[in-house]
Amino acid sequence: MGLATDPVDAVAEPVDVLLNLAPISPEDFTRLAGLVRDGGVVVSTTVWMPAPSDDEREVRGIDLYVRSDADQLAELVSRVDAGDLRVDVGERVSLDEVTDVHSRAAAGTLTGKVVVVVDSE
């Protein structure tokens, strides 16, 4: 997992909810889901990897997605333009590289925010 302490080793007792907000490998996600108590919930916000369920233990997997709000996005843009909000960009890629970005995200090796630069031609 790339962490100093593996969460599977660090958690001493089952948890009610596992909330995944970051790209990790499917194998690591399944291992982490094993920490959820019987009848608990696994929630994922990663669109490329569904939350694992375990029917035998009645552990539900829930995939949570966010609906974009044009007004909120416009407000964020104005804050960025004014210098009130800073977004740390890890890298910029061309549209041709998006497949690689998704692959790295699914593998859990993508770090930082990625800006996709679309050629105007």
UniProtKB/TrEMBL annotation:
Domain of life: Bacteria
Species: Nocardioides pini
Protein name: Zinc-binding dehydrogenase
